């Protein structure tokens, strides 16, 4: 249920207990008040589009914070990671963290009960989080595929994905040292599909090409032509593209950089390459992890949460606006997942700032009114317009009557003044006789 009122932006929001109505004041410019029953969240997202939020494995998975972000950003999906502990960058030992898994399961129950899609993801947590998944590089990669399938994917499918009916499974993310092993990925995707009937994706890391480096261009061509992309449901990209050298670039400067990047003078045409990825694979494109730190130079190295000590919400808002204006109308662009939601640290540079929240909220926003409701609104508007016309005519009549009364009032004032003069003359005569 949606209503329009003139209220000021209120931030943040504490959610009520399940089953109660919830009013969330979302926006400063448009002053939109959303009244929602927390039994089920039906955010108005365009059909077929994905608006998701990523969670960080070390956060507490606080349902209140997460649901608040779902509402204020108008999301319909959450990417829920399951922590997989790995001793070192070269290790073949991989263990699902049961404590974190239990927190994830409890959250998944809450999300699915409220109609939010869940994308499940095994998350490599290497050497206590000291290294990112892009650095995982064991020598025996054939054995890695077998172990990842049997000790990670299969248990997650049987204990979470199937019993909790999750919407999708992201089988791996950003494993750049494994991407060339085409037949192994094909086998893993095929086996996962045999067990799980939902969405299956494999998230790839962002890339760069440079006009002065033929090797980078060859690497990109090899990347998008790998055979296993034909087996996933859509192309998921961790989109941390290095675009612009300015401290606080404008929206137009960022959009220009998307077709010719400034960083290291690479002149990479990111938009063209994303389109090529779509054309070669025949798959829709999805940003499986995306955000911009609210710091100066955030568009230069968006993957660096400490790229600058100077806070700049405008960098984040301008970046999201540029991406929205560039990608929203592309039929093959499926959506995005915000890194991260459910984090309440005001100093965290990836926390979505209020102005950015407005941009994300309106991306793929779908008017919830049906054709019948729109027709009823049109008829109501016509009735109101008729009443306004009638009121305007009555006002004109009243103005005319007012003018007439003013004339009569003037006449009466003149008569009173004449009578007063006569009375004064009578008094004078009486006084003189006396």
How would you characterize this protein structure?
This protein is an alpha/beta fold. It is 41% helix and 16% strand. The protein is built from ten helices and twelve strands. It has helices at 63-73, 98-113, 141-161, 182-195, 214-224, 251-257, 270-281, 313-327, 354-362, 371-433, and strands at residues 2-4, 21-25, 32-37, 50-54, 77-86, 95-96, 117-126, 168-173, 199-205, 235-238, 285-290, 333-338. An eight-stranded parallel beta barrel has the order 4-5-7-8-9-10-11-12, surrounded by four helices. It has a three-stranded antiparallel β-sheet with strand order 1-3-2, with no helix packed on it. Helix 4 (182-195) links the parallel strand 8 and strand 9. Helix 6 packs across helix 8 (313-327) and helix 8 runs parallel beside helix 9 (354-362). The protein is elongated. The model is unreliable at 1-38 (pLDDT under 50).
Helix and strand layout, with pairings?
Blueprint: E1 2-4, E2 21-25, E3 32-37, E4 50-54, H1 63-73, E5 77-86, E6 95-96, H2 98-113, E7 117-126, H3 141-161, E8 168-173, H4 182-195, E9 199-205, H5 214-224, E10 235-238, H6 251-257, H7 270-281, E11 285-290, H8 313-327, E12 333-338, H9 354-362, H10 371-433
Parallel strand pairs: 4-5, 4-12, 5-7, 7-8, 8-9, 9-10, 10-11, 11-12
Antiparallel strand pairs: 1-3, 2-3, 5-6
């Amino acid at each position: 249920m949606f209503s329009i009122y003139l209220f000021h932006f209120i931030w943040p929001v504490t959610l009520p207990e399940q089953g109660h109505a919830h009013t969330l004041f979302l926006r400063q410019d448009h002053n939109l008040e959303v009244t929602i029953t927390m039994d089920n969240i039906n955010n108005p997202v365009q059909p077929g589009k994905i608006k998701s939020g990523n969670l960080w494995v070390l956060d507490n998975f606080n349902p209140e914070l997460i649901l608040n972000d779902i509402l204020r950003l108008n999301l319909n999906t959450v990417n829920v990671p399951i922590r997989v502990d790995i001793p070192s960058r070269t290790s073949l030992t991989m263990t699902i963290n049961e404590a974190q898994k239990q927190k994830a399961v409890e959250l998944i129950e809450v999300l699915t009960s409220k109609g939010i899609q869940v994308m499940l993801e095994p998350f490599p947590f290497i050497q206590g989080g000291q290294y990112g998944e892009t650095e995982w590089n064991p020598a025996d990669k054939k054995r890695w595929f077998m172990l990842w399938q049997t000790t990670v994917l299969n248990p997650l499918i049987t204990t979470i994905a199937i019993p909790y009916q999750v919407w999708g499974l992201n089988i791996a993310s950003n494993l750049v040292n494994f991407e060339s092993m085409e037949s192994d990925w094909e086998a893993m995707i095929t086996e996962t599909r045999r067990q799980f009937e939902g969405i299956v994706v494999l998230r790839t890391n962002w890339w760069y090409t440079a006009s002065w480096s033929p090797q980078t261009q060859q690497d990109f061509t090899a990347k998008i032509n790998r055979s296993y992309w034909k087996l996933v449901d859509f192309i998921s990209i961790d989109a941390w593209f290095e675009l612009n050298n300015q401290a606080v670039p404008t929206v137009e400067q960022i959009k220009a950089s998307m077709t010719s990047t400034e960083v290291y003078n690479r002149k990479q045409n990111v938009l063209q390459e994303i389109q090529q990825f779509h054309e070669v694979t025949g798959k829709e494109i999805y940003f499986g992890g995306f955000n911009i730190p609210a710091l100066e130079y955030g568009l230069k190295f968006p993957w660096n949460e400490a790229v600058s000590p100077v806070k700049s919400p405008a960098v984040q808002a301008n970046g999201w606006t540029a991406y929205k204006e560039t990608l929203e109308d592309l039929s093959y662009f499926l959506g995005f997942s915000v890194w991260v939601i459910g984090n309440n640290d005001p100093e965290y540079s990836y926390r979505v700032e209020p102005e950015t929240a407005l941009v994300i909220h309106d991306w793929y926003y779908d008017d919830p009114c049906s054709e019948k409701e729109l027709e009823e609104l049109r008829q109501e508007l016509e009735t109101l317009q008729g009443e306004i016309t009638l009121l305007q005519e009555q006002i004109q009549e009243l103005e005319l009557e007012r003018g007439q009364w003013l004339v009569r009032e003037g006449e009466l004032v003149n008569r009173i003044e004449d009578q007063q003069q006569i009375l004064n003359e009578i008094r004078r005569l009486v006084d003189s006789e006396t």
